[in-house]
Structures are given as structure tokens and as C-alpha cells.
Amino acid sequence: MQRFLAHLAEAGFTGAPRPHGLSENGEEEIVDFLPGEVGHDFAAPQVRSDASLIAVARLLRSFHDASASFAQRPDDVWQLPAREPAEVVCHGDAATYNTVFRDQLPVAFIDFDTAHPGPRVWDVAYTAYRFVPLYAPDEVELTLPVPEARRRLTLFADTYGLSDRERAALPAVAAVRLRALVEWMYAEAAEGHPAFARHITEGHDRRYLTDAQWIEGTFGPDAGCQRL
Q: Considering the domain 2-218 in this protein, what is its CATH number?
């Protein structure tokens, strides 16, 4: 990951920490501290604004554009499997809680452990899920009325600059992305990783599966994110 973060810096992307090598025991990566606020969910006012949604769409587009020229090596190891077409390096978890805010706006991403090669829309779908957000109505404190969710999804897609093909695919990709996340959680828990076992016990898998089903039933290819 050090090599990838170094590439982002060399490409002029300022929305990620700069790398400084590994700790003495070689087990921890040393990166810049990025000042700002992190750890928000959609309940935070700075996440809910249109200005925030526009800023994170631009940030994600800039990140993808910078990552597209990263020279991959056969021995590169990614925590999540690569997906075709490998147009960019996806962040893998560019969510509200991995975004640094300053002056109420997103300015950087952190926690690149889940980065992996994939199509742009694969990453866009998950960030839209978290920032629009695309949560089913039973998530009563964080969900939005469908017309408002559709408007914000369109605004996100417009700002990022999705193609018509990507727009048509976006809702379905978001649902597939959530199901892939659940499968990965199950696999990691089966390997004995306690954090994933705890997430399953807490019902994170059920949350994602419920949301995936709701997205598929609510946002069709003709209604998901028409151009404003």
C-alpha cells in the first residue's frame, strides 16, 4: 500500500495520506496524519448536505483518475479480489467514516486497506450507498424518502461524471456490491477473524442484505439516476 499511496502523491492527488514506510517491526504502515473530522455516519449534518455530496463525488473522481495510471505488479497483494474491468484502483470502503471533513466538507479519504483493482462504478456504487444514502426504510434514523434519495443519487452521478451505461447499471451494482461485502464478511469470520464475527453477531450482514434487496426493488435502470 505504501507504493500505491506514493503513486497517488506523485500523481498530484492530495486527498490521501502520504506514506512514510513501515514501523520497526514491519507490521504497521506509517502515513501522514490528516487533520480534520472523521468517523461520521449520515446522521451528521456535514454529511447530509448537497455540498458534501458534491465534494465527495469530486474527491472520488479525482482519486480514481490518479489511480488509473498506477503500475500494477504481478506480486501485488490486495485484501479484496480484483474485479474486471480493472479500470482504476478502487478504495473499497470510501464511506462517510473513512472520509476526512474540514469546514463541513470532505477533503480526503483514509484507511486504504481494502483498495483493489476494479471498475469505477464498483467504487462509486458503495460511496453512493453511504453518502446518498441508499438505506432501506427500516433504518428509520438514516433513510431518506425515495424521491430525495433519487435526487441525491442523480446529483452524485452528475458530479462524478458517470456515463449513461454506468448510470443504468449503478443501482444493480450497488446491490451486488453489498452482497459481495456480506460474502467477504462470512469468509473472514470463518477464517477466525473476530471483528467480522462480531459484525455478523451485531447484524451488519442483515443490514446490507436488506438494503440490497430494497435498492433492487426501488431503483430500476430507468429511474435510478436520470440526468438533472
A: 1.10.510.10
